[in-house]
Amino acid sequence: MKKIITISLLTVALFNIANANDKFADLSEDYLSTKASLNVRTTIAKDPQTAVSVLKILAQDSNDEVREYAKRNLK
Predict the structure, then answer these.
(1) Which tens digit of pLDDT belongs to each residue from 11-58?
(2) CB within 8 A of 73, min separation 6: which ones?
(3) Do the domain assignments include residue 37?
């Protein structure tokens, strides 16, 4: 039983790592530019697992801090 649980946990962990760069991938440019608060945009831009497509949108944000965080995570 212990072996099955360990294998299951490792499988879930590997799946999460494999999909890590897709975080927030479903957010639209419209949402990020008109509906998301500065706090939300900053948090998303800071997250190193945020999808590249979202970081590219945030790299053009009106806020300097959001733009800087997004550009750092694009590198």
Answers:
(1) 665 555 555 557 788 888 898 988 999 999 999 999 988 999 999 999
(2) 45, 46, 47, 48, 50, 55
(3) yes
In-domain check, residue 53: yes
| Angle at CA of residue 27, ends 25 and 32, nearest 5° | 130
List the domain range (segments joined by +) for residue 31.
21-74
Report DSSP letters for 26-40, one per residue: T--HHIIIIIS-HHH
Count of structural domains within the chain = 1
DSSP states along 16-75: HHHTGGGBTTT--HHIIIIIS-HHHHHHHHH-TTB-HHHHHHHTT-SSHHHHHHHHHHH-
Whether residue 13 is contained in a domain is answered as: no
Which structure tokens are listed for 65?
């801090």
